[in-house]
Design a protein that fits this description.
Length: about 450
């Protein structure tokens, strides 16, 4: 394997000083899978102070030194170098009570979460793989190192990490590992909301997100109780062939893998069980489910301490996800004016994905979404007016007409509406004439 250039620098300096060192964890896994590693993690038999001495010519950080980690900055990139270690009990279910440094790389690998992450590599030694991680990578199997329940009781975040790896890497979770995840799932409650959000936002952007949502909803419902009642909830409506949970899984898989869109897809129908009704013909209805789903999405994202910008976009998309848009220029410009370009195009993506989760006979609606996108792009490319900033008159013009205060905004809104509805051309002279004829008397 070709190791990253910065890792080669670290290997050379540590080796020249007489120490062992290995690439370890996710970066080795990624390289074995033919992927470029995102992070470089190195482990060594050098003690932390010895590592600092080796890299005295570099800027180093001691943030994790009590657990054996020294961060070395090479060409502006932080690289963690950690001493081989073993760990004691995890009293708090997240962090070891103490760590003990060891001289044996295999001891260090034995404390890691999954076999695919418990492989080390050194160009001189080759791969060190005491737990069969390479075989599990080849078979796309996610398996705990050692006894699965012990691994999850040590650190319950590993339960969500397992789901994230299965989603993003396309791995199947081995039976004993899956059983232990169910047994220990309530321990997720001791994980910080921020860490939960990070794992979930990555999980739902994985290529197998829908499958994981369907198969492991009982685990995901611990940090996300909003999705609990979706499982097995039949919709009794000719539009649907899936229960609410599996429809949601289909929509998640069908929308672009961006966190905002995937979160909106995850929550878009979570309010359906709360507002279900069935008519005299046995047809199910979910009146006001979008508003209820938006409220639940907001509560969930606040609880998980999602950033405000993402939360607000997700809640907006959920609230309007079933709002129909006619594929004509006037309607599209109204929606562009109301929502803005970003939300408008994201809404179309979400509605397109929502449609793919319906009965196949309704897939003809994809043509409508094609037309909506075509019209919207033409409106934008031609600089057609759909917002106040594009209007050929402004507040100063209204002041010159003798308007004050809120009347200025009201007049501009009426003129913009006239332009969007094609009752007036968007040029200054036409707008002022229209104002005198139609707005001044209002």
């Amino acid at each position: 394997m070709l190791i990253p250039e910065k890792a080669q620098i670290i290997f050379q300096l540590l080796s020249n000083a007489g120490y062992e060192c290995f690439l370890v964890g996710g970066c080795v896994r990624d390289m074995l899978m033919g992927k470029e590693p995102h992070d470089i993690d190195i482990t060594t038999n050098a003690l932390p102070e010895e590592t600092k001495a080796v890299f005295s010519a570099f800027h180093t950080l001691d943030i994790g030194i009590k657990h054996g980690t020294i961060t070395v900055i090479i060409d502006g990139e932080p690289i963690e170098i950690t001493t081989y270690r073993t760990e004691s009990e995890y009293t708090d279910g997240r962090h070891p009570d103490r760590v003990t440094f060891t001289a044996n790389i295999k001891d260090d690998l034995s404390r890691r979460d999954f076999t695919c992450n418990a492989i080390a590599y050194n160009p001189a030694v080759g791969l060190v793989d005491p737990f069969g991680g390479m075989a599990d990578i080849e078979s796309k199997t996610l398996r705990c190192v050692g006894i699965a329940e012990e691994r999850f009781r040590e650190d319950s975040l590993r339960i969500l990490r397992a789901l994230r790896f299965a989603s993003c890497l396309g791995f199947d979770i081995e039976d004993d590992t899956a059983k232990a995840m169910y047994t220990c799932r309530e321990l997720i409650n001791i994980v910080s909301p921020e860490r939960i959000y990070t794992e979930i936002s990555k999980l739902i952007c994985g290529k197998n997100a829908g499958e994981i949502i369907s198969l492991y909803s009982d685990i995901l419902a611990v940090p996300l109780p909003e999705i609990k009642d979706m499982k097995g909830f039949q919709q009794h409506n000719f539009h649907h062939i899936y229960d609410v949970l599996n429809h949601t899984a289909k929509v998640v898989d069908s929308v672009s893998p961006a966190a905002t869109l995937r979160l909106a897809a995850l929550f878009h129908d979570c309010g359906k069980p709360d507002c279900f009704s069935i008519d005299e013909n046995g047809v199910g209805h979910f009146y006001s489910h979008a508003s209820i789903s938006a409220r639940k999405a907001n509560e969930a994202l606040l609880r998980l301490r999602c950033d405000n910008a993402t939360r607000e976009k997700v809640v907006k998309l959920v609230k309007i996800h079933d709002s129909p848009i006619e594929p004509d220029s006037k309607t599209v410009k109204k929606k562009l004016q109301k929502y803005g370009e970003e939300i408008f195009f994201d809404l179309i993506k979400l509605q397109r994905a929502d449609n793919k989760g319906l009965s196949p006979e309704f897939l003809y609606r994809q043509e409508t979404y094609d037309k909506l996108e075509e019209i919207a792009r033409q409106v934008i490319e031609e600089n057609q007016c759909f917002s106040l900033k594009d209007l050929a008159v402004n507040g100063r013009d209204m002041i010159d007409l003798g308007l004050k205060g809120k009347d200025i905004g009201l007049a501009l809104d009426l003129l913009l509406k006239a332009v969007i509805e094609e009752q007036c051309q968007n040029d200054r002279e036409s707008l002022l004439i229209y104002y005198h004829r139609n707005v001044k008397s209002v």
